[in-house]
Amino acid sequence: MTLRFETRASDSPWVDTVWTCTSERVSEMTSVATVCWGLVFWELDGTAYANISGPETGTGTAPVPEGATFVGIEFAVGTWPRAVPAPALVDRGVELPDATHSTFRLDGLRWETPGPDDAEALVDRLVRAGAVVRDPLVAEVRRGHRPVLSGRTVERRFRAATGLSQGAVRQIERVRKAAALLASGTPVADVVSKFEYFDEPHLARALRRYVGRTARQLREGTGGAIALDLDQPTTS
Asked: Which of 16, 50, 68, 147 has CB 3.0 to 4.6 Å from 96, enough for a Cys bridge?
């Protein structure tokens, strides 16, 4: 059983990554904490689907339609769809109505369903139409700038734009990077040091909470299908 991801970075300031996925003899997967919201498009048995996926604050189990093919756009932290407040998306998704093989509906308008190579063109159209918006303060903070605002005001705007605290975003991003290094064979002690975990048990707790895998499972590629591109096929 395999869940095969291909992920690429984007040069758009509105997009984090673009990914594709195919499932073969997979009925469920481990969901992984993520700080991004996204648009996901897939086809199964001749029917097209589209939805908004929200940030996830922990790990769990999610069903996977066998034989489905997916295209996903993960948006940059600090952006959100105008139709849904960012906090309302945390740990949930929104199915978009009237999806077809070529179009989907969002923010009251119909848009062309993208492939992995034209995701940015769709995002540009969504931004110009005001269907996707952002708080520039979040981008400034993430670049290390210190706004002339109180810490409380910055945190309030960050939560309004992302649905998450700054601390939660840092923790989730850190453990996802740690998981990728462990999957590549990097020794646990080196990962602990690189990402400044207190010790190996501290890393293990973070992996359990946010990734749903042990360091050994990540290294060996075991534990079943997982919603994380680790640059390797996932085996049961």
From this structure: 50
